[in-house]
Design brief:
Layout lengths: L1 H33 L4 H12 L7 H17 L3 H14 L4 H17 L3 H17 L3 H18 L2 H18 L4 H14 L3 H15 L5 H16 L3 H17 L3 H17 L3 H17 L5 H14 L3 H14 L9 H17 L3 H21 L2 H33 L4 H91 L7 H14 L1 H12 L3 H8 L5 H11 L4 H8 L3 H14 L6 H10 L1
Helix pairs in contact: 1-2, 2-3, 3-4, 3-5, 4-5, 5-6, 5-7, 6-7, 7-8, 7-9, 8-9, 8-19, 9-10, 10-11, 11-12, 11-13, 12-13, 13-14, 13-15, 14-15, 15-16, 15-17, 16-17, 17-18, 19-20, 20-21, 20-22, 20-25, 24-27, 25-26
Length: 613
């Protein structure tokens, strides 16, 4: 009986393992079907496959975690993506190249939420492993991803240098993924404003990305569409952006879907469709703020520019306050350019709403960002690198064309000589045309940059002058208000003092005793309201007395004090009331001071001196 049970048990165990293996194979088939195409569906099958982790090798489990990390990254859920990449790295010790792949994928995820230092650190770890095991393809991938990092960071020279290394490696080993590096190169030209060449590259690689319509295809469409718009092909750009928006919605990548929505707002703004533009900007702004996306500040800047153009300053102020409250000192940005663009638009809002102090406060931060960006970019070197790659790319195209021509010549030997001469002449003319075109283009570009810089400098100088004039006018208004306040208070106090003395003088001894009257007058005299007036006057016009004394050293302190009343343009009656003297005394004092200044016969010059000093 025991001998009979053992075969049955082994048969049952074998059947169970076979059924389990069949289930795993079925799940892997489904994962392969949806991975990179429908991340939401792929995620479900990946989690089901993880239920069999105890029965699978650590390396296979690590690979599953890697795919799960990629899936969450496509869904723009970066925290979860980072978590699963780390779990995969911890299990991949037995497969170094898989571990390097995990580090590289993790670096892409870090870059997606603008954590460039950690992204570069992960790429460095991946590179060390690839180089140790001689994986040239992996090295090319790392150089390509480094280029993307530096591209987003605004360090275009480093981006192009790393792309050059990646392209050389992929060409050397014949890696079929060369089109991915061409897409990254197109992104670099797009970010440096070379839209014409960027479009040329995008149109070569888009058919390859379109084969499986993965998220990367729709992300490439975003930059391609913007390049088309910059070149004036707005209709095609809008069509491509709508395609990207719909595709990213289907792939559940809501972050980039709302980025596309915001970029559509730019097109609606440019084509005078303000209602659609405001809806697009508002929807994109609200979602990206809520999701803490590093692409939030770019959309916020575009939204603020639109609101300023529409003179909707109330909404613009609210947008600025929301950005301040949610960006932690503008950290929700892909790079310094996004911060600078937003601050420039915010300054425009403050200027238009006459919040000049806030506008001035932004100048230092704007200048700092401009200086830091300028110091990080050597534009001449970048331009030279761009042109060298454009020429190299053109030469490659010419070589391909020439090879095709050689094939035709073998089938048409009778016209061989004519064909060779014609193509040599064509190549010569083409090269000369390209050289002349590039030389003129470069010269015109430098001239445009010089003119643009001069215009910007003049614009900034004009803005500063306008702000200074506005602040000066405000200061003069405040000074006039203080003068009026000083005169009113001083006259009021003097009038009260005079009324009290008049009451005492008009009262008989039965109403107020002579001793009590003398005590009141003595107390009023001790209060020395005149001294209080002089102290307040110095606060309003601190340099008046000093300048008058320097011009006329023979004037006494009382003379200068009397002149301060004339500076306030008080009438004789007001001076009489304030000083408690007669009109004749006022006229005599004025005449005496004019004599000391040698202006006794020139009332006009004397009054002008009092006003303008």
């Amino acid at each position: 009986m025991k001998h009979f049970c053992l075969p049955i048990f082994l048969l049952f165990l074998s059947s169970s393992l076979l059924a389990q293996n069949d289930k795993i194979a079925e799940l892997e088939t489904e994962i392969q079907k949806y991975l990179f195409k429908q991340p939401d569906s792929a995620k479900i099958y990946l989690f089901k496959l993880l239920e069999y982790s105890q029965e699978r090798d650590d390396t296979l489990v690590a690979l599953t975690y890697s795919k799960l990390g990629i899936t969450y990254s496509q869904l723009a859920i970066y925290d979860s993506s980072s978590y699963y990449f780390k779990k995969g790295i911890a299990l991949a010790d037995e497969s170094p190249t898989l571990k390097a792949d995990l580090y590289a994928n993790s670096a892409i995820n870090y870059r997606n939420y603008a954590n460039y230092p950690q992204s570069l650190a992960a790429l460095k770890q991946a590179m060390e492993i690839y180089q140790e095991y001689g994986d040239r393809s992996g090295e090319g991938v790392v150089y390509g991803e480094m280029a993307s990092n530096y591209n987003y960071m605004g360090e275009k020279e480093k981006a192009i240098t790393n792309l050059k290394r990646a392209i050389e490696i992929f060409k050397e080993i014949g890696d079929e993924r060369l089109y991915i590096l061409q897409q990254k190169l197109a992104n670099t030209y797009y970010n440096t404003g070379n839209y014409e060449f960027a479009v040329d590259l995008y149109e070569q690689v888009l058919p390859r990305f379109a084969e499986d319509k993965a998220p990367s295809y729709y992300l490439t469409l975003l930059s391609y569409a913007e390049s088309l718009v910059e070149l004036g092909n707005i209709k095609e750009g809008e069509k491509r952006l709508l395609e990207a928006k719909e595709g990213l919605t289907e792939k559940k990548n809501l972050e980039y879907m709302y980025v596309a929505w915001g970029k559509l707002g730019n097109i609606y703004k440019a084509t005078n469709r303000p209602v659609l533009a405001k809806e697009a900007y508002s929807e994109s702004f609200n979602y990206l703020q809520k999701s803490q996306s590093p692409r939030f500040l770019q959309i916020a800047s575009d939204y603020l520019s639109f609101l300023n153009a529409q003179k909707d300053y109330n909404t613009a102020i609210r947008v600025i306050e929301r950005v301040k409250n949610s960006t932690n000192n503008f950290e929700l940005a892909m790079n310094a350019q996004d911060k600078l663009s937003f601050l420039l638009n915010a300054r425009e809002t403050y200027r238009n709403t006459k919040q000049f102090e806030k506008s001035l406060n932004l100048f230092d931060r704007i200048d700092y960002l401009k200086d830091s960006m300028q110091s990080a970019i050597d534009r001449v070197k970048i331009k030279q690198l761009e042109e060298s790659y454009q020429n190299k790319f053109q030469r490659d195209k010419n070589i391909a064309l020439q090879n095709s021509n050689e094939m035709l010549k073998r089938y048409n030997t009778k016209q061989r000589t004519i064909t060779i001469l014609s193509w040599l002449l064509t190549a010569l003319i083409l090269i000369l045309s390209i050289l002349i075109f590039m030389y003129n283009k470069k010269r015109l570009a430098l001239q445009k940059v010089a003119v643009a810089n001069l215009e910007k400098a003049n614009s900034v100088l004009k803005e500063n002058q306008e702000l200074e004039q506005e602040l000066l006018a405000e200061k003069e208004n405040n000074l006039a208000d203080k003068e009026r306040e000083l005169v009113a208070i001083s006259l009021e106090v003097a009038d009260i003092q005079k009324q009290i003395k008049d009451i005492i003088q008009s009262s008989d001894k039965n109403e107020v005793s002579e001793e009590f009257a003398e005590r009141i007058v003595s107390t009023l005299n001790q209060l020395n309201y005149w001294k209080h007036f002089k102290t307040k006057f110095v606060e309003v016009h601190p340099e008046f007395g000093y300048n008058l004394e320097q011009m006329f050293p023979n004037l006494t302190e009382d003379d200068i004090a009397f002149c301060s009343l004339l500076k306030l343009q008080l009438s004789t009656e007001e001076i009489t009331s304030l000083m408690g003297i007669t009109k004749e005394k006022v006229a005599a004092t004025k005449h005496r001071i004019k004599a000391k200044m040698h202006l006794q016969d020139n009332d006009e010059d004397f009054e002008k001196l009092m006003r303008e000093l």
